[in-house]
From TrEMBL:
Lineage top rank: taxon: Bacteria
This protein's name: Uncharacterized protein
Length: 155
């Protein structure tokens, strides 16, 4: 049984709110923020008018998005500029607080883009923390398998 667009969108926004709340207390606020943004984008595509019909949900999303912004920016400091994080989270919140207009698609794109940038920052950070064992193994294997060039001058 499939749900109608309004029901699907409401559930996605409720899940996004739960992720935002988790980001308020999580050791790393970035991962729940990514999940929340993904849910908001999907909800906005499913039912662009959700904010008009659910002003309470829209207000909670906006409040929480702005509350977590400093924690998310801190979590990716050095990888993503804080103003970029704030802008992307604001775009995500505006998917519900602004009426759908000619900028609705741009809000979706900016919210999706910051989610992707945050995801990339988390992956890069984790690979660096782990010293990128796969990358190092592939590099070592390629070096081992490379043909020897015996015509290289040693002087």
């Amino acid at each position: 049984m499939t749900m109608d667009a309004p029901t699907t969108a409401r559930r996605l926004v409720e899940t996004a709110i739960a992720h935002f709340r988790s980001a308020l207390t999580a050791e790393n606020a970035v991962v729940p923020a990514i999940r929340a943004l993904d849910d908001l984008v999907t909800a906005a595509v499913a039912w662009p008018d959700l904010g008009d019909h659910e002003p309470g949900l829209a207000a909670r999303v906006s409040e929480l998005a702005f509350a977590i912004a400093p924690r998310v920016a801190e979590g990716v400091a050095g990888a993503i500029a804080a103003d970029r994080v704030y802008f992307g989270l604001a775009a995500g919140a505006a998917l519900l607080t602004a009426k759908p207009d000619n900028l609705h698609a741009d809000r979706i794109l900016h919210a999706g883009l910051i989610a992707a940038e945050l995801r990339a920052a988390v992956c890069r950070s984790e690979l660096k923390r782990r010293n990128d064992p796969l990358g190092r193994a592939v590099t070592a294997q390629r070096a081992w398998e490379a043909p020897a060039d015996h015509n290289v001058s040693l002087q």
